[in-house]
Write a structure and sequence with these properties.
By secondary structure, this protein is an alpha+beta fold. Helices cover 44% and strands 14% of the residues. Strand 6 and strand 7 form a beta hairpin. Helix 1 packs across helix 6. The longest helix is centred in the C-terminal third of the chain and has 20 residues. The radius of gyration is 32 Å and the shape is elongated.
């Protein structure tokens, strides 16, 4: 019940703002309404005669009056909405009965005009003719939704007219809620009208379902009325708020899974623009921004972007803001929820749920950023900059970039396992780190569609794996810098440094000759990780020394390899033990250090005199 309570609390706070206004771009529906798009707008005269029809601009979400039956999961036989609905439901006997009852209750004249028009039964023919005359493309779909505008002294757009909406709300409260049996609502702790029908939560999927009485047999004594009950008010407010939040700030991890983060407070928060995915900056606020309800949308974006790999200055601002509120004695709470719609039986599930103080929440996010990152190349500028990998990138590394159903399921499960690491500071599961490490030390497994080696893809995989390795060890309170530690005597790290030197030596010696070719150091990496000393002796004696002779100052690299070798603790180098993830960190840091100099400087330092003279002659 906790999630229902938090959503109802959010609703009550939001209802005091313009979030419930029909003019809001994403209106929050009150009980008796849902938010939906209507594809067509039909204009009528005050007497209920057809005037015009046109397509509605895409993306316009409006408040749609609904009944208790039509506002929940719509199953056969479908219960229609009273006034705005799909063409196939408008004008049916059941819909006209609801509309007639509303008119008799005291609906505005514009509603009577719609009733008079629908009674003629010409809706679809009128729409088809009007759109045809305008040469507007239409698929002639009975499923298209219709909203109405009634002409008068001023056109009355019924979906945003206050008198029309207020009239329906009063009708709903008296004739729908007022006709229901009352009992204890376990969500709100009050005696209220109880319902066994609940709205959908994610698309057409249900979070709460009570459709088969025998589900309760053997669990509760007597009838199902003894089961935990939820009021119509609670379920409508909670589900309307849930869908409103998903539209507002939800993040789809894939087509079946939604990450939703929100705050229950109602402080005013101006809109801000979307972040540049690979930029630490965020755009400034516009000078004139209409206030709207605060559900910690910025924090939600920060968490969603955090789960998608982006760090930005916004977190610093939000943390400072949260500290100031805490100092004033104000309490802000954040909720993290993952909704999963993969059960296949028309049901959605809450795969993850957490409530925590907003400052703790932001600090956990900051911790994720600070511990799980590694220098990675930007695709546009090729500039290397520390960045947190996306869960999708981690999934692609571990399970490959294929898009089959099995792979998508595995990646979805991986994303859900990473959410607590991001929001609750849970340690990174070691199997995730090891899976990424094993993939990264197998360069031959990275191929382009043409079949050639994907060097850029492999280098990106090494960076992602290093970020996860760093995160894993920092969770154990070990310090793992992203710069080369030249004083480290750690066995795995030192072997990684040696392999990086061998890799660079061969790359420089063959510079420009065989671009994109795997060096021997890279080809032997997987074997090197399993049998480091044996493989190193093979590389140094048979493969590295010939390349050193091609370099102008090969003694620099010879001396560097000797210096690294001398850092091993006695006996460490000869251990018959595979290397762990720190080996990959040493490799990455050493190689980046060697290439940190200007390319021309490094090239002039390493080219032998004969090659240099040949290059000058060619020029």
């Amino acid at each position: 019940m906790s999630w229902i309570q938090k959503l109802c609390e959010t609703y009550e706070n939001a209802a005091r703002t313009d979030a419930v206004s029909p003019d809001a771009p994403n209106p929050l529906p009150v009980p008796g309404f849902i938010a939906d798009e209507m594809e067509l707008t039909v204009t009528l005269s005050a007497d209920g005669d057809f005037v015009d029809a046109d397509r509605t601009p895409e993306g316009q979400i409006i408040l749609v009056p609904c009944t208790l039956k039509s506002g929940v999961a719509r199953q056969n036989p479908v219960s229609p909405h009273p006034i705005f609905d799909s063409i196939k439901y408008l004008g049916t006997d059941e819909q006209m009965k609801i509309l007639s009852d509303w008119c008799n209750f005291g609906a505005p004249k514009a509603v009577h005009a719609v009733h008079s028009y629908l009674a003629k039964g010409t809706l679809k023919d009128n729409i088809e003719k009007a759109l045809s005359e305008k040469k507007v493309k239409w698929k002639d779909s009975d499923g298209d939704g219709v909203r109405f505008c009634v002409l008068g002294a001023q056109p009355i757009e019924l979906w945003r007219n206050a008198s029309v909406l207020d009239s329906w709300q009063k009708y709903f409260e008296k004739n729908c809620l007022g006709a229901m049996d009352k009992s204890l609502c376990y969500a709100l702790g009050q005696t209220l009208p109880i319902t066994t029908k609940h709205p959908t939560a994610l698309g057409t999927l249900l979070l709460i379902s009570m459709t088969i009485d025998r589900n309760c047999e053997g669990i509760f004594i007597g009838s199902t009325k003894n089961a935990v009950s939820v009021s119509a008010e609670a379920t409508l407010k909670a589900h309307n708020t849930l869908k409103w939040l998903i539209r507002r700030q939800g993040r789809y991890l894939d087509r079946n899974t939604v990450l939703l983060t929100w705050g229950t407070g109602a402080e005013i928060l101006p809109d801000i623009t979307e972040f540049d995915p690979e930029d630490d900056e965020f755009a400034p606020l516009p000078e004139e921004t209409k206030p709207q309800v605060r559900t910690m949308a910025r924090q939600a974006k920060a968490v969603a972007d955090g789960s998608h790999g982006y760090d930005n200055r916004l977190l610093k601002e939000l943390e400072e803001e949260a500290r100031e509120k805490r100092a004033r004695g104000e309490h802000s709470e954040a909720v993290v929820m993952v909704l999963d719609s993969t059960t296949g039986n028309g049901r959605a599930s809450i795969a993850y749920y957490q409530e925590l103080d907003i400052l703790d929440y932001l600090q956990n996010l900051r911790y994720w950023y600070n511990t799980c990152k590694w220098p990675m190349k930007r695709q546009d500028t090729l500039e290397e900059k520390p960045r947190t990998p996306l869960p999708q990138e981690i999934g692609d590394l571990i399970y490959g970039e294929r898009g089959g159903d099995g792979d998508r399921k595995l990646k979805r499960q991986l994303s859900k396992r990473l959410i607590p690491c991001i929001t609750a500071r849970r340690p990174l599961p070691p199997d995730i780190m090891m899976a990424a490490f094993r993939r990264a030390v197998n360069p031959a497994g990275f191929r382009k569609e043409s079949g050639s080696w994907d060097k850029e893809g492999w280098e990106r995989a090494v960076a992602i794996a290093c970020a996860l390795i760093r995160k894993y060890y920092m969770d154990k309170e070990e310090v793992h810098p992203m710069e080369l530690d030249e004083s480290s005597t750690e066995r795995n790290y030192l072997f990684g440094r040696l392999l990086a030197v061998a890799d660079v030596v061969e790359e420089l010696a063959l510079s420009g000759q065989e671009k994109g070719r795997q060096t021997n150091a890279v080809r032997y990496m997987q074997r090197f990780q399993q049998r480091p000393l044996e493989t190193w002796n093979t590389l140094r004696s048979g493969l590295i020394i010939p390349y050193l002779r091609k370099l102008k100052n090969g003694t620099y690299f010879t001396r560097l390899m000797d210096d690294i070798t001398n850092l091993f603790e006695p006996g460490d180098m000869a251990l018959q033990k595979p290397l762990d993830g720190r080996f990959l960190e040493g490799y990455s840091n050493q190689k980046r250090k060697l290439y940190s100099k200007n390319d021309k400087t490094l090239k002039s330092m390493t080219m032998n005199e004969e090659d240099e003279n040949n290059g000058s002659a060619d020029e």
